Amino acid sequence: MSNLKVRQQIQSYIEQLSDEKLVIAADFLAYLVEKEGNEATEELLSIVGFENDLREAEEQAATGNLVSFKAIRRNV
Known about the structure:
Elements: H1 3-16, H2 19-45, H3 50-63, H4 69-74
């Protein structure tokens, strides 16, 4: 089933729910979104050296020690 058809089916189900069940559905969808975000975070954290690289990048950004994207593109 295409993404559009799935979204339309979900919308149809939502329109049929009582207010009480709609709150439950919203909570479940929020849980799924959070879980997906956590999985992405776990994937990044599993990359060797990622946390150190991220910390270093944040420190460089905070001190203004940045390189413009244009400068990087010219060197490629």
